[in-house]
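During the second half of the funding period, the structural biology subgroup turned its attention to how the target accommodates small molecules. The most pressing case was (2S)-2-hydroxybutanedioic acid, which had performed well in the primary screen but for which no bound structure existed. We therefore specified the complex as follows and requested a full 3D prediction, including the ligand pose.
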Amino acid sequence: MFEQLLPAAKDPILSQTLACQQDKRAHKLDLGIGVYRNNQGVTPVLSTVKIAEQRLLATQDSKAYVGLAGCERFNHAMMDFLLADNSSKSRAVAVQTPGASGALRLLADVIKLANPDTTVWLSDLSYANHAPIMKTAGLSVAYFPYFDHDTKAVNESAMLATLSQLGKNDVVLLHACCHNPTGADMSMEAWHSVTDMAIQQGFLPFIDIAYQGFGEGMDQDAAGLRYLAERVPSYLMASSCSKNFGLYRERTGLAVIAAPTLSQSECVKSRILECARSTYTMPPDHGAAIVRTILEDAELKNQWLAEVDQMRGRIQGVRKALVQSLQISTNSHHFDFIADHKGMFSVLGIDPAQVDRLRTEFAIYLVDGGRMNVAGMQTQDVEYFAQSLAQVMI
Ligand code: LMR
């Protein structure tokens, strides 16, 4: 049966985690996979998550199946949280999924069912798992210009020029905030332009929101997507609770479908549930139960928001410290852009050989392509990192 089967290619992100775990050097720095670490190097269980878990332990009286769409209270609480008072909520429906990757895959499956000729347009660069998910669902993938390697910002005019050519057979996958891998976010003006184009040209916006609260704030990070959602006839959205609730291993995500009418959205949802049934049937419950416990309790929710503020503040502090240290170690302003980037990641603009040298000579692990997880760095390591990076730049 398996004689002809070749082994899988290495995952560009997960393979670095593994390699770093196996590295015996004490001073190693794991700046690959996107997990937040506090200044002690720990990815903590949030205190509000602990409180929610204690409540669940005390009150949960059954482990019976919940349903194909997961917990509807979680779905509603998340929709309210993501969309606030957005009018699109009246025609949107949601499904709980195993992480946002699960949401991306189910939404890709339903796009394939609805229109097999769809091309999904990804930003160049984009999250390493976007193309594999879309392609595994049988969809074609193409790229629109996004990251300007010289300015380390979004090349919005090039992006909009490509998007202006798209139409009804196209889906445009946008990162709501804290762009993965680059850290460079679209301006509000660009969100306005993409919204107008989606309305006029008929392409379908597909929003991935995985880092809400890690950029500028909970509402600020959702402003672009809310503007768009308010105006376009249809959109899809994949949302993750991995980062802002720290629920990585609980695989807690949400797929949102907004079609022109509620009954169309319900129809799409029924096909998504059919895909879920033939894949994993039901999503795991624990993470969703935690999230709804927090979001449904005003006091607990405020405590959680403060915890996210703290994580964001630390990331911003590391960004500033990195810029200062890199100014000294490189005697230049070459890396000042790190302070302008948002969220966990920055693409540093170094070549594969330099990434490799950081790994082999200095035990510093980035993702190939030079993505650094800023949120994984402790302030005590900033100087070592800056000096090592300066060394490989020579
Ligand atoms: C990342 O980009 O590092 C995270 O989203 C983890 C993952 O699943 O790829």
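Two results from this model are relevant to the next phase. The longest helix spans residues 298-330. The mean pLDDT is 97.
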